[in-house]
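User: what does the whole thing look like in 3D?
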Amino acid sequence: MLALQAEGASITTAEGLREHRIGSVLQDAFKACHGLQCGYCTPGMLAAAVGLLQANPNPTEDDVRQALRGNLCRCTGYEHILDAVQLAAANLPEEASA
Amino acid sequence: MKPETAYSGELAEPEGWVGKALPRREDDRLLEGAGRYVDDISLSGQLYAAFVRSPHAHATLRNVDCSQASRAAGASLCLTAEDFKELHEVAPNWVLPRSTPRGRPILAKGKVRYVGEPVALVVASSPALARDAADLVEIDYDPLPAVLHQDDARDVGAPLVHDDMESNLAATFAPGNGGFEEAATGAPFRTQFSLRNQRLVPFSIEGRAVNADYDPVTDRMTLYIGHQIPHMARRMVASTIGFPEHRLRVISPDVGGGFGPKMHVYQEEAVCALASIRLGRPVKWTERRSENVCNTTHGRDHAMHVDVAADLDGQLLAMRVESRANIGAYMSSMGSGIPTVNVGLFVMGVYDIPNVEVDIRCFYTNTPPVDAYRGAGRPEASYLIERTIDRVALELGIDQAEMRRRNFLTENQIPRRQPTGAMIDTGRYHHTLEEALKRSDYEAFRAEQKAARQTGSLIGIGIANYTESCGIGPGQVQKLVGFDRGGYESARVRMTSDGGAVVFSGSHSHGQGHKTTYAQIAADELGISPDRIDVIQGDTESVPQGVGTFNSRSVAVGGSAVKVAAGRVADRIHRLAAHLLQAKPEKLERDGDVFKAPASNTSVTFAEVCHAAWTGHNVPPDLGVGLEETEFYHPTSMSAPYGAHIAQVEIDRETGELALTRYVAVDDCGKVINPLLARGQVHGGLAQGIGQALWEDGMPQADGSTVLDTPLPRFDMLPRFETSHTVTESWTNPLGAKGLGEAGAIGAPPAIVNAAIDALWHLGVRELEMPLTPASVLDAIEHADAGGEP
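Assistant: Here's the predicted 3D structure for the full assembly of 888 residues, as structure tokens:
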């Protein structure tokens, strides 16, 4: 999205995800599943995955593929990112799916 | 001597740190937005560069006028070729014997030779102002006829890319043992066909970037470049611009993907360095995507023809390969070696073929220079031989797996130097293939395929038994082929006085995870946890020297250097501990972090020994003060990893759309240091190999579409991969490792195209060309000779 579209919204970047309920779980899952290599696309992948898990706490593989298809990665072949998002969904505390 | 080799489809539980699936130690930073890439580095007094590039593939350069650009808001410098007394040139680093090198001028002079070639540089106080000023540079071009394809470039009367040459022929290479005609004449079976390995754009997500910081006070320069081989970058920039290497420091911070193109020096690094010298201020340039696709090197681009003879059982008798390679407008760093040596040596793959002739010719064209891209020559060779095996099998009515079994080199033929010159250190090809066949349910698929044909649905299975060559070295071999680069790798292992260790390595990770794998290797030697070991790379001031990361060499060569250096340090620690306890080293026992002398019932901790080494208060003369070792590990030979990849596809008869339904990869890279990271390497290679097979094309098309119009693999375009290993350790290095980073990109294209042809052969389809777009597949089906129905 463009910066103008975010007027009035609060913005969390990769630097703030450690304090974010879903973001922090995703960070741990990306590490556990080797969901990043060079790391350059990683903040975007995390942001898209946070958006997905906020809207859909129990995504299917296909849901993850569709939600993240706008983010290019040239290192991982995406499979470990898929694993990471699904692991994060499984690890999210109960209230996340409430 | 060959060490004991292990074989299994699953990896054994490791005894030490090597072999453990540790998560990466570099990840926390990258996950928290604290990655530091070149563009993140801004210095005091920072200025920004923009380049003016040729919009023509070929044109005479009449006049370049900087007068308006120099006066633009915020602009501080505008440079053209006329501003340099001597025209600096980025020279190739690998110049094949009998080739005609033409390096890249740092700014075009007299003529432009491809779209995107830099003509002028503008430096300004912000990136936007630099771009605005660049638009004010006025250039008069007289367009010339251009030549884009190698088969046009070789024609008599073709436009000459370099006027001082008599033709566009840049290099030739003809390995093999000859005897094709004798062996092929009268052979029971003979066939020939052509195939194309299309041009690809490597497309790292981070483009190239440089921040050149010349300090007029100290007369020193620091170059921040996201690079795969920082020490070589220092040497190449120094020689290009005539700056002494000892006052030039290259820092390569985090690198956002490499895949080959980030191991060269280009015009931009040289020009920004020269601009920084003129201005006495740092000059930064960050590549835009459109610049990445037209000035950063491309890969592949071969037009090939194979002529092959066999007996009626499918036993190959002789093969002749002709290839014409398009190397672009200039000879890039490794541009003469990749399409020749790296292809020609490996066209026999894993097979025993008595007579082989190879003739490779490289041509200059009006396109961006072509150089190493993941696999770098071996994908082209592997694609050729694996397609050939299938072609012969299908024409003779032999199952493609059986065809391979009949032609494999056997274990008692290995180690072996193939008639083309390829050195094969290990090869248990039968085992790896059988493992892949089992995992892909090959026999069941064949039954399913038979049934599917009754209903008209089109499914196919394809095999690729690739081999390649990794861990480049020793340097003596590189010298023979004109590759002016070392074949060693450095490692320095330094203990700290609290019992920790720092590993300095001349390799450089651009995503591979050396901070983790090298720590695992050193941890086993030192007997401490990887948590107590840091790994430093990418700074020519702190790392002694290095060759760098390419050719899947970081583990086999760089990792071996770490192992050897750490082993020597461990030996010194042990001997110093014995000295401190007044015991004989062989009587000393180690229990975790404690050394014990059972005779005297005394002990000293690991950290205390390290502390003692650095105080030097009580060290024996033969050990001396300090605790560090440097190893320039120089392998005696390269290794030849291999694997069996099997793809299954389904093709829609009405639309030509191809679905990749399964992909099984069994790779034998020897010792696996970290299975989790190894899997990541295979996945990434597969994604790029599948991209080549199905979607990507880096050559501008007749309809005006460009590489930016062709899809890159996205999240929803790839299946899950079924990966595993067989383990046959290499005897060429102390780790027993071979190399893995390029395997996926080498195996996937032939596996997938073979699967597609397998699905369509009964319709009479004989050939398909990459990328397998729906239109091209549909076209092949529609034009198939129905008489091909068996």
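In plain terms: Residues 308 and 319 of chain B are 4 Å apart (CA to CA). Chain B has three domains: 39-376, 377-472+638-785, 488-633.
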